[in-house]
Amino acid sequence: MTVPGLAAESPNGLGRMYRRSLSADPSVPSITTVIAQQPLDLDGWRSYMAARHLADHPELRTALDSPARIRQLVRTAVDASEEYARAAAQRGDRVHAFAEQLALRELGRAHQLAEARDLLRSHGEEGFAVSVERWWESFGVEPIAAEQTVWNTSLGYAGTLDLVARINGRICLVDYKTKGTTRDGRVKPPDEKVAMQLVAGMKAEESVLDPAAGEWEPWKYGEDPLLIAVAVGETEFAAVRVNPEVRRHHWVTFCGLRRVWEARVEVAAAGRTLLPLPPPPPPRVQLTSEPLPTTPPPSVETVGD
């Protein structure tokens, strides 16, 4: 089950970090924070959302003759693109919460599945809940653990897996990705970076037992699980698996990104990167003890010549 207290945002702006217990300080980065060290260009998407908002604005035609009004509309378009991103993240949280509550119900534990569905319905997002349920039914999911927090001491990272389950007799690590829908009603596929996220989860060494006391046990499900990403859309779901042949490459990349994160921490601790540089002082005039040479005035005779 989700343990929000084990994860916290780093005070130095270096991403999300995990702690060993609810009373300990955060000490290792999250899996997603490590992966975020890899450049990810969202400028194109944000630019498109801002441009679309501006093009659809009802006041655009009347504002064309007013540069000040155009600048104001551009500002609102930029704000709108940021709001789109926030709304998408919040929607993802609601869908993940529903999937977690569904797993808890199937595990025979206390759950709030009805409340999670009502929350999605209140935002006009119940289609996502239906897609999650269809995925469970189609694949015959047998849950083992939901929102399982795991830890790797050797490399130094932690994370939370959306679902550990048994499907067709095979242990599976599952990650949900809430995705939009194409014009023909198909859910968009997950991004390939989900493979690295799942591989890092597979390579965990421990899983949490008691977050308050800081009790952990050896990770039981990292030998050779099936790594599955499920794209959850309003109209359907799409499941993909990570090719076992590429796991090693994603793990090597993840290890490199972990070192990048650590280097950023060291740079931040060293102090300011760029320091002010004033111009050098003007050169000083050197004074000597000998008198300056003088030129004798010309004689009268020579002036007239």
From TrEMBL:
It comes from the Bacteria. Residues 273-305 are annotated as: Disordered. PANTHER family: MITOCHONDRIAL GENOME MAINTENANCE EXONUCLEASE 1. This is Cytochrome.
